[in-house]
Every structure is written in C-alpha cells, then in structure tokens.
Amino acid sequence: xNWTDERVELLRKLWSEGLSASQIAAQLGGVSRNAVxxxxxxxxxxxxxxxxxxxxxxxxxxQGASMQKSVTRAASATRHVTVGATALQVQFDAEPVARHYxxxxxxxxxxxxxxxxxxxxxxxxxxxxxxxxxxEDFSFCGNDAAETGPYCKYHSRVAFQxxxxxxxxx
Length: 170
Description:
The protein is an all-alpha fold and 170 residues long. It folds into two domains: 1-70, Orthogonal Bundle (Arc Repressor Mutant, subunit A), CATH 1.10.10; 118-169, no CATH class. The chain is built from six helices and two strands, in the order H-H-H-H-E-E-H-H. The protein has helices spanning 5-17, 21-28, 33-42, 55-75, 153-159, 163-169; strands at 129-130, 139-140. The protein has a two-stranded antiparallel sheet with strand order 1-2. Helix 2 crosses helix 3 (33-42). The radius of gyration is 37 Å and the shape is rod-shaped.
C-alpha cells in the first residue's frame, strides 16, 4: 500500500478529528493500525482533537476528576520535600519510634579470663580475643570451650545470635 497525497490528507483530517488508529485504518482500508501509527509519527502529528465520549465515559471521567481532588487534599496533609537523588522520598514531621528488642537476661556469669597467649591455646580453650591485637597486653579468654565451637559458653552466646532474633531485628 502506498501513501498517496489524498490518503495522507485523509489521515491528517481523521487524526485531527480524534479517531483512533484502528478507526482510521478501517476507513482508509488496506492499511493496518500499526501502519497508521507509524505514519502519524513520521508526519509528527500531534495535538489531535478528541472524539466526543459516550455519556457513560463522560460520567466516569467526572468521577475520576473528583476522586483525584480528594486524593490531592489527603496528600497535602503530609510534607513532601525533595532532596537530590531522594526526590521521591517523603519526610514526616514526627520522629519514628525506635523499637529495642532486649534479650531476656538469665543468670549470666561473666567468666574471669585466663589471659592466655596465642601459643598457649589448645583445642579445648576459648579463643575469644581480649583487647587490641597490636598491643602487648593482648590475650585470649582461655576458659574451657564447648565441643561445638571455638568459644566458651559465655562467649558463644555473645558471638552467635539465634536465627529467630536475627529475623526480628530486620
């Protein structure tokens, strides 16, 4: 199908009247909806008129406009501030309430460290570090370690948090 000058003028006229690409294709005959859309873009046609909507559509459009106004009024209750890359981030006047999860305290006894040096550690001693590794008074706990890990019972509870508490903290 060739786009003759008459067909192009008819396309321009129908487009400005607000007909859809499918309706224009049907009136032109022998051309697809996509061909009409492509030609409209190549001709850089814009500012098309609107076909008169059916009464039901007009009613829905009026309802949609009133709904938009009520949503706008509700949104104005919060304060929107745009800052750099966080332009869509909403900031509120009230500070968020921090929630702290406190582990239940049982009869926990902090063991007295034996202050062992690295060469004094064995498979059965706690390898919890005490102090700064670069200082001369650096040492390890050295208390009896459980068979399940490198630390004594107290330091195991400090080092390893149960999975349920990790999930709650997120």
